[in-house]
Amino acid sequence: MKFKLKNENIASEFVAHIEKITGENAKRCYQCGNCTGGCPVSFKMDHGPCQIIRLMQMGQDEAVQEANSMWVCVGCMQCYSRCPQGVSAANIFEGLRQVVLRKGEDHQEIEDIPMPLLKGAPQQALVCGFRKFVS
Ligand code: SF4
Ligand code: SF4
To answer: For the chain, what is the mean pLDDT?
Structure first.
């Protein structure tokens, strides 16, 4: 039997867009909290993965976009592996980042990174970081 939420008719073009580009369905989430419980960095997020998805279900577009959660996510996929509903918060965060970056809003300035960190960081980490944070 498929789980059905009562609030499935909440209209939000933004949420519909995120669902379209990620292939995820936020309405499938029944808020068990497994994703946030297993997320290694949720303690640094304004809202954990399950809270972000709940905000999406409620059509709270601004709260979702203003939260630091999408930038803190490290893409480890732990949330997806623990989700009984097959929802990937990791994909949703990736979609959210894409939407912000495609507005031309960089989330990291290269010149703001301290030189000692630049010199010591693995090259791959820098490339991955800039792919994630810079439009
Ligand atoms: S992919 Fe992101 S949201 Fe999911 S568990 Fe890892 S860090 Fe947390
Ligand atoms: S694990 Fe899946 S069903 Fe549970 S809160 Fe997270 S996204 Fe929702």
So the answer is: 89
Output the residue whose Cα is nearest ligand 2's atom 4. Answer: 32
16 lines ligand 2 (CB under 6 A): no
Global confidence as pTM: 0.85
CATH architecture of the domain 13-103 equals Orthogonal Bundle (1.10)
Q: What tens digit of pLDDT does each residue of 70-91 get?
A: 999 999 999 999 999 999 999 9
Closest-lying ligand 1 atom to the alpha carbon of residue 69: 3
Residue 55 three-state SS: helix
Angstrom CA distances, 87 to 30, 34, 84, 103, stand at: 10, 11, 8, 26
Q: Rounded to an integer, what distance in angstroms lies between the CA atom of residue 87 and that of residue 44?
A: 21
Q: Which of 83, 88, 91, 92 to mutate to test the pocket of ligand 2 (most atoms within 8 A of CB)?
A: 83
Domain boundaries, the chain: 13-103, 108-135
**pLDDT tens per residue, range 84-117:** 999 999 999 999 999 989 988 888 888 888 999 8
Closest atom of ligand 2 to CA, residue 89: 7
